[in-house]
Amino acid sequence: MNPSPDKQDKCVNEVISCQKNAENNFKLTKVRDFALPVIFLILATIGIAASGADLKLSALFCFDGEWPIGDLQPWHLLYKLDRIPAIIVGVCGLVAVFLGLLYQNRRHWIRPGLFLVILLALGPGLLVNSIFKEYWGRPRPREVVQFGGTKEFLHPWQKGSAHNGRSFPSGHSSAAFYLAAPFFIYRRKNLKRARLWLIGGLSFGLMMSVARIAQGGHFLSDNLWAWGIVHLTAVALYYLLRLHRDTAPSAAE
Question: CA-CA distances (angstroms) from residue 214 to 45, 46, 115, 200?
Fold first, then answer.
């Protein structure tokens, strides 16, 4: 027995309504993913500037123009680690891409692998180290007059002379915060694993930030924006590479 036209229309309307709700939820999530970090960065930057936290926090580690705490462990070890953990994750992404191209049953590895590779190249690589650090010109804490240097202190929004100050943002911290990148790969497939990567990456990034502040290499706001640039780049790539459509667990999981 065929359903009546009224019932068919009702079913069609319900399907259309569900699709519209899904689209609206997706748009809302997308706006939230971009807007919340930007709002946080702006408010945190204003708070740091208004409270003088950049200079006050760095002053805790500076003694007569020297930064001895930064030479102690684990801060010195973190400085030496530099970008090694990030490069390892990026290489894993590259391997995933090649395996996905070689094996049919590993095709689902390609986009996550590309995400890791492109994010490393764009975030900590191009945007942080090649563009902002080279051309923004913000002096490091150990270079400003407040800590025995000769240069003027600048807020993060104040552009200095290109190649004459490489404090903004922190290259070490950007590479450390990059370790949270797998969060975006797993956020719709394995929430528990996604949270572990997020917590681990943010924790490592915070530790690296403390190390660079203790060494007189960067201000608090430099590390804040190191996270911000990497995170927003990750969000953009997450949607450009359509990782938000990966809802089914992969074969490896």
Answer: 20, 22, 32, 21
Residue range 51-76: average pLDDT? 97
pTM more than 0.90: no
Residue-wise pLDDT for 121-134, tens only, equals 999 999 999 999 99
State how far Cα 215 lies from the chain centre.
Answer: 22
Tokens for 162, please give them. 């290109």
Cα distance between residue 109 and residue 121, in whole Å? 19
Q: Measure CA 49 to chain center.
A: 22
- Calculate the alpha carbon distances from 35 to 39, 47, 158, 183, 209 in Å: 6, 18, 23, 18, 24
Measured distance CA(71)–CA(211) in Å, rounded:
9
- If phi > 0 it is left, if psi is from -120 to 50 it is alpha, else beta; for residue 154 that is beta
Can you tell me the distance from the alpha carbon of 109 to that of 135, in angstroms, rounded to the nearest whole number?
Answer: 36
Task: Locate the domains of the chain by residue range.
Answer: 54-245
